[in-house]
Amino acid sequence: MFELHFMCPDYLPIAVVAFCVLLVLLLYMLRWHRGRLAAKYAGWQHEAQQVEIATHDAYYGGQARGKAAYPKVSIVVPACNQLADLQFQLPRLLAQRYAGKFEVIVADQLSDDGTEEYVRHLQQEHPNLRSTFVPATSRHIELRKLALTLGIKAAWSDWVIVVNPETSPDTLDWLQHYAENLGEEIDFVEAYYNYEDDGSLAARRAILERVQQFNLRLQAFESGVMLGCETANFAVRRSVFVASPGFSDSLCLPFGEEDLYATCRVDPRRTAFLSSPDTRLTEEMPVTPWLRAQRVRHTEAVRHYPARARRYVWRERFADVCLWLFMLAGGAYVGWRVASDMLRDAYNASYLWTDVAMLLLWTVVITAPILSLRRSLKALKERRYGLYVPLSDTLRPLRGFYNHLSRRLQRKNFVRRYV
What is the DSSP letter of 75? Predict the structure, then answer.
């Protein structure tokens, strides 16, 4: 017993507990406290929509909201050989109950699966459906970038909402709720959307990652920093986009156009985030290899972020380090205490308060991520994930290492070749 006491002085358990307390505080400041942001912004959005409705009703003397009350909106759908998705999505978009005027523009990326014929057929019943196409000779730029640019410039309204063919509004009032948040003081809007929950483990991970990434964007936004954007359910003021360099920041990449445009070109002071289910899209759950490739592409796009945005990425990595340091320190403490009591063949009551403190810290580390996300998941109408949340946080550094390794192995594929 003397040797064991000599190998572990009395101050060492206290130092370990104090170190773990510091790590828990850092985890709260870096990660856990932002779990409530989506719920907060959803509440703000509902209040803003109610004010907007009341303002229009008062302006028009209590009459039904007329078409002049809401802005003209263009919905751009970039598509590349996605006829099956368009056959499901376009009728739902064209059937939106909107009090204003809107159009849908299909930006065709040289599809050869009958997309052009299908759009032409729908145009006979829907005059607000139009299409643009990428010229076959356009080989100097990535097709999606060019299709998006042409679609936005072809819009006859100053507000353009971008959606993908594999995404679809949850309700027929999606556009109405969206337009109620398009104000004169706003130039860019990013709305939450996520994958459909098919009950699989891949869907669980993908949905949780997107919720956490959305909360991270909200945290950066509150500090005056734009931290990327998803590929759909965002709105941009056409005049601002045309006057800006557009997707020039991602010309060297065959992807990442929306991500880098939002990070490098969007003014956060004239930006709004929508997290209410009223403005949500649901994306068809892709296959696992596509998800893996998407994560690797995002890892490459992050390398092109400006320093102010990369700071938040490094903060996330530092939070991962803090979590693993806690697990190592806390696990070492538990292992030492168990071994010590086994050698004594009795519980050492002199360490009672440090044991209680460590037990409480472990409880906090396991339950805090769950509780911090619960309000956001409820506001976004996502199911609860329970213990999967801390498990996912624990495995995040390993997944990040895999993504970085894959990025380095595939870096030659991430360079846009001009021909």
Answer: E
Here the tokens at position 332 are 């070492």
Instruction: Give the alpha-carbon dihedral of 339, 343, 346, 350, to 10 degrees.
Output: -70
Q: What are 181's two structure tokens?
A: 């948040």
Poorest-confidence range of 132-146, 200-214, 376-390?
Answer: 132-146
pLDDT at 413: 79
Residues 6+ positions from 120 with CB-CB distance below 8 Å: 131
> In the numeric block, which tokens belong to residue 257?
């156009």
Cβ-based neighbour number of residue 58 at 10 Å: 9
CA pair distance 208, 80, nearest whole angstrom: 28
CATH of domain 35-305: 3.90.550.10
What digits encode the pLDDT tens for the residues 370-403? 999 999 999 999 998 999 999 999 999 999 999 9
Q: Is 49 left (phi over 0), alpha (psi -120 to 50) or beta?
A: alpha
H helices present in 266-384, as ranges: 288-302, 307-344, 352-379
Tens of pLDDT, residue by residue over 71-127, are 999 999 999 999 999 999 999 999 999 999 999 999 999 888 889 999 999 999 999
pLDDT at 415 over 90: no
Can you tell me which residue has the tokens 């999967």? Answer: 388
pTM of the model: 0.90
The residues spanned by each domain of the chain are 2-32+312-413, 35-305
CA distances from residue 367 to 57, 212, 355, 370, 398 in whole angstroms, order as listed: 46, 16, 18, 5, 21
